[in-house]
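The passage that follows is intended for readers who have already worked through the single-chain material. We present the inputs for a multi-component assembly, then the predicted structure in tokenized form, and finally a short commentary. You are encouraged to pause after the input and sketch how you expect the pieces to fit together before reading on.
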Amino acid sequence: MAALGGVEGAGTLASLSEKSPALEEFSSGRAKKRRHFRWWRLIVMVLAGIYFLGPLYAGIKFSLEDIQGGFSLRAIESIPSSPGFSAAFALSMRITIVTVVVSALLMIPTAIYVHLRVPRMRRVLDFVTVLPIVIPPIVLIVGVLDASPLWVKSSPYLLSFMYVILAMPFVYRSLDAGLGAVDLKTLTEASRSLGGNWIKTLWRVVLPNLRPALMSALVLTLALALGEFTMASLDLWTTIPVWIYQFQNASNGHVQIAAAMVGLVGAIVLVTIIVSLDRSRSGRRKMSTK
Amino acid sequence: MAPGSEEITLKSNSRIHRVRRFFGPSMALAPFFIFVFLGLGIPTIAVVYKAFQGEHGGFTFSNVHDITQGVYRLGFENSFKLALLSSVIPGVLGVFLAYAILTAKSNVLRRVVLAASGVFANFGGINLTFMFIAALGTTGTLTVWLNAIKLNPWHYGFNLYTFSGVVFVYMYFQIPLMVLVITPALGGLKQSWREAAENLGASSWRYWFHVGVPVLLPSVLGGMLLLFGSAFAAYATAESLTTGIIALSPIQIGNFINGNVISGQTNAGYAIAFGMLVILSVTMIAYGLVRKRASRWLL
Amino acid sequence: MTQMKETPVTSTLTQNAASGGASVSLENLVRTYGKVRALDGLTLKIEPGEFMALLGPSGCGKTTALRVLAGFEQLDSGRVVVGGEDLSNVSAQKRDMGMVFQSYSLFPNLNVLNNVAFGLRMRKQSASKRRAKAGELLEMVGLSDQAGKYPHQMSGGQQQRVALARALAIEPRVLLLDEPLSALDAIVRAELRDQIRSLQQRLAITTVFVTHDQEEVLSMADRVCVMSRGHIEQVATPSELYARPVTAFVAQFVGISSRVPVDASGREVVIFGQRCPVRSGEGSSLSGPVDALLRPEDIAIAVDPEGKGFVTRKSFLGAVTRLVVQVGEISVRVDVRSDVGSEIELGTHVRPSIVARDVLIAPRKVDVLSDPATAS
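Having made your guess, compare it with the prediction:
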């Protein structure tokens, strides 16, 4: 459930980089108790490390091996040339681009408009954007397949449409948080009073300040569109995840796993870049305010 | 402004202007609402409608009746069990992990783990499946290593492709999700509470028992509800891992879409989807209530 | 290490002082954080039942001292002795002190009554006894009708009163208050100030009160310990502290002082043509060019067309009118009764004279830009 993870992540990542003094062991000065606590914490972290990093390592290793077990990039290299991949890749790209564009065109103006003009609608929007969590993809696709006329079903961009919906909780939360962090009203009024029209104001004032929110919204939309399986497979479109699932090959599943790992590692890299970009940005912003 | 134009700028009170003023500002949101209606509203309505439609049209409860029997009922039971295990176990583990991170001395470690949680909580179904197959499949990398030290989990009853395997894999994104949800709550535990308790004579245990745990409980519960909904509705991982062997509601819906229907129950799939909607709505309502309580105390 | 400037305890304590709290002795406390010496050999004795305020700017170590006393901070060296007992190895849990924090210390999941009774619960008292005692204390702070409410339903002032009741419920030997009024607005603060003080006097509990607000301190404390950078500047009663500060820091932190450059020789200075003895204290051994620190009440003026000074500013403060008088190159602040002050116009020539018994001097501060009268 990408949306859920993203929604919660948006809030937590921003704050909470400080140590929490309230959770410190009691200051009673009993060294023995402190030592127990430290061991316990170490065990938890080690176990977590094994559970999370172990499979990741195994997956990466598997992708970099050939059938005999030696180091080989063959599995990864053969992905692009594997039958059906380029079609799947192209399809995923098209769907993803349309998703991002439609999502941006729909959500950004809406979020800004609500924030500036009709703040009382915010509660409605909050509710609406939580709905995709209550109505999961598997349920949605059933209804979509039933209710859509044939001409809609025969287009892959139906998936784009639905992905915009799936991404909505996160995209909206992200934009909302970003808009809240900046004093939008004052900024826009200042810009207007200095002679800028709405378009210029949007372009030069609002959007640059929204960049971190836009970045994280973009990243999660990308991750969602490129990794979504449920709707794509049931709607019978061979996107990259569907291709991975269906690809059967004599090489012991190496290609499948390699493709899956590329997806996972790519997601990690993407998010890391965004997070570090965001941090350096907010650091700069902190310095430039009074 | 020209001198004589004051009359023109007075607000007109005519009916059409009043209507326009009321709806005007919200008009710009029309595209959004239309989009949501089309993408969310219509499919939902279709599902609910079809759930009560008989095979040859006409209102009926037979679909709903069907899903409370036999294999569909089993599907719900299994999904419920799966979601329960996949919310309680990762929930508790997530709390401990979050606690361990927040009390760590290193700032860097904390930020890294929190960011990692953000990434892992979003790990997609398909890719996750294959990663685990590579790691802990019958000939997976980790399996082979563990086999060498006589600790091969498969020999001890572990099976990645069954119920327990699914729970094990689900933890991979459920634990980080819990960490993300509970971290603000843990951080909201005020130092002054702890010190006040200590000052009044409470030991560490008694503080947690009387203050810490009760204050955290709504947040933990809320997190687990979120995890429950997430696990219940998940399709991709379960499907790719078990290839439809286990009866789970989302998978049954998938089968239904792919045409594997029992004759006479053509609309059962819709009823299953409807059932899922009901369960998830209840879960989210409970979550909302619990969240309110949590925010009251943790300010 | 600095010498302690301490004045003997005066008889502001109530008769039953002996039955109330315990004596507190902080001996040579040293606490460092990295390079910073939060406590620099702090030594202080507090009498049973006394209300001792720790006053100073942020970072002076007053909160650290309180937390060391409570057992929340470790010491690098030094001893904490309460009622004759060395508490160095006693955990905060067992120290039998009641503490009121700055804010948000009430347990949010317990109602008011259970909050107040918490300490009693930890001491395994029976439910009926707990209820009775908690009720009694809520009555003392005037909140018996709020017993069933929860902290988030109460105002800041009410919460602090509950916190006070909770701390007192366990009948502690020492009551510790860490800036309990700082987070409240002015009116509530004033009310609570009186309540705390009267409660404390009634129960005769030894109390240590940390604050950066001198107004609180002057109106509540039996004695005040002014701190700066981990050490003590002066320990004295409020009136003593105000009227006769012994260091420049105290003179300028508590109340207002004007700096007047003079020459000191043989424990005497000459100000406005008068010979004044130098106050014993920090600067008493200085000679040569120094600054005299004068309070507005230390100076008197008489309207005199031949006088060397003239009035440059006038502020009506109610009962008193504050004048700024320019004498040569220096400005001093002088307070006069308002009925007198209303007669004095700007530019009036006056003759200033010193009416204080002695004068505090400090090393000369060379600061060309600032107005000496406002340097504090």
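Commentary: Residues 223 and 267 of chain A are 7 Å apart (CA to CA). Confidence is low (pLDDT under 50) at residues 9-20, 25-32, 283-290 of chain A. How closely did your sketch match?
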